[in-house]
Amino acid sequence: MAGGRTLQFVDRAQAFPAKRPATARAEDFREIADRYALPAAEDQAGRCSQCGVPYCSVHCPLHNHIPDWLRLTAEGRLREAYELSNATSTMPEICGRICPQDRLCEGNCVIEFSGHGAVTIGSVEKFITDTAWEQGWVEPIVPGPDRGMSVGIIGAGPAGLAAAEYLRGYGYAVHVYDRYDRAGGLLTYGIPGFKLEKPVVMRRVERLAAAGIVFHYDFAVGRDASLDELRERHDAVLIATGVYKARGIKAPGVGSDGVVEALDFLIASNRKGFGDAVPAFDDGSLDAAGKHVVVIGGGDTAMDCVRTAVRQGAASVKCLYRRDRTNMPGSQREVTNAEEEGVEFVWLSAPQAFEAAEKVSAVRATRMRLGAPDASGRRAPEEEPDSGFRLDADLVIKALGYDAEELPRLFAAPELGVTRWGTVLVDNKTLMTSLDGVFAAGDIVRGASLVVWAIRDGQDVAKNMHRWLKANAKGERKAA
Question: I need a labelling partner for 90 at 20 to 30 A (CA). Which of 10, 204, 345, 470 fits?
């Protein structure tokens, strides 16, 4: 790159890494685009305007030092760029792949406002850290001096993993308890490989385990131990379970065979990618092959489902959403990817009933229109009179989002305070729950949100737990 210069956004066009042809990528679960070659990464980083008030950083939940590591990349100083990127994020290459940059950093890029197209921040972030892994720059976690105290973390998703890394660095013994047989939470089982290949997640987990963090798999709190028992075992406990209770639909036939939950469908697909035996996939219940598939919902989970169904060989894939494209919550880039891969979007439509004899055969739906804004500020959908229609369907996937499970009941901890939405109630400053020494972070506190926010919450709660543990270090210690 000439002189390693930045501010090249006028003469140098925005260029994302090239996507594989839609017909080719629909045949497998590989990521749809390879990363930049080195010259392209330097060129695209060099488009950064190095503005005095970096809105990209302001709108990043982790407040990553984006202009600084873009400048270092443009100058060919990749190891320094990685170290700066790694300073604020425990999973930069994961955020580079799955963050909705169009709604966060790139969507607030100054040169995007000027009409020149945002700097491709996410793609450069992915390039930097993937290069660091290949070159051996990703160093082992160095535990701090042993404090003789232990922490238990419930949930091995992004919030739990981020907190585990920080707490191990502070010198605590860290034990992570998860209901699944692999760590990563939705990174592992919810997000398809075409957005996040699983070795990318597993190498992060292996790095944590190599630092002495102990993972307890297939461990359900409330079944294998109560919350009180974990409190006895550890000096502090973090609840980072995420939210997994699927939102339902009230409509005739919703319980029919062939009407399934999004997470069940995605977990089955991801397990097959690991080579696991999945009876519900193998008997066809959670396999879209040869079927007419209708996915209900407009968020990123719905996009994951429609694109997974395409790769499984569905005969047709339709996405039914009650608002229009402009008002959908999912990433517009994901909608474009889905359309390229053959998904049909049925906008301004909502299900009314599910036809079924032995199993589902069709979705009866109605057209919608957008009325006055609701409490969220978005225009509320209203039913169009006499506008019913029918869609053939052998498999219907409900992707309407997630709510919190009833943790006080599941954990045998009725004294655990929760909000009216079921999320765990915490002190806003300390992130401690109603139980002394029990903290909570991530989606189980804020509700279903982004992975990058879970990472931020995990990092924040680890600092608060460290502060509390230091202040309460007297007495018997539990170095589990």
Answer: 470
